[in-house]
Amino acid sequence: ALKDCDWSLLADVRSKYGNDKVDEYLAERLTLYPTKKFEDNNAAWSTFMTIFGLLDGLVMYAPVWADYYYSALEEFYEDGVLYLEFRSLVPTLYDLDGTEFTPMDTVRIYVETLEKFKEAHPDFIGSRMIYAPIRNTNSEGVNAYIKTLKEIKEKYPDFVAGFDLVGQEEMGRPLRDYIDELLSIPEDIDFYFHAGETNWFGSTVDENLIDAI
């Protein structure tokens, strides 16, 4: 738990300050629409990642994560989507007794939730995961990602669609820095690199688009 931090029930906070003020407070911290413009791309990304930090504690509680995935499937299904491929960091989930889940546990929750959804929606074809951890790491980190990827693929071969690296490109190393590591990935695992998220020209970020192709 955080030191020098007071916790209050949200119901009590709403009673004290009123729903409108609480909703406004949450909206300002959970959306990417500030009252002033971002100075640059780094400032936008900093706010973006802060939002993820606030959401993590909410959605990474294991039972909520399962409901979160089920609800996402339901929304796509209602929009007429019968097959879905999605990117996931495969985050470390937790339970109220302090237990931290392994990556394999997180994927198991995905698979079990998907099967539950397919039972309720027989015409839904399926969903597969693109394992997409954070790109801002070193060669040892990428090797650890690949080890996890291979373990997940072995345990759940039909659920893994492929591999990607996500996160702000300017703050991470370019794809070409990981060529040796990436080429060690088995041929039955596809790459789904998304790159070139910039209007710069001639930078390593811009060149990521070429390397990805």
TrEMBL record:
<dbReference type="InterPro" id="IPR006330">
    <property type="entry name" value="Ado/ade_deaminase"/>
</dbReference>
<dbReference type="GO" id="GO:0005615">
    <property type="term" value="C:extracellular space"/>
</dbReference>
<protein>
    <submittedName>
        <fullName>Adenosine deaminase CECR1-like</fullName>
    </submittedName>
</protein>
<dbReference type="GO" id="GO:0046103">
    <property type="term" value="P:inosine biosynthetic process"/>
</dbReference>
<dbReference type="InterPro" id="IPR032466">
    <property type="entry name" value="Metal_Hydrolase"/>
</dbReference>
<dbReference type="GO" id="GO:0006154">
    <property type="term" value="P:adenosine catabolic process"/>
</dbReference>
<dbReference type="GO" id="GO:0004000">
    <property type="term" value="F:adenosine deaminase activity"/>
</dbReference>
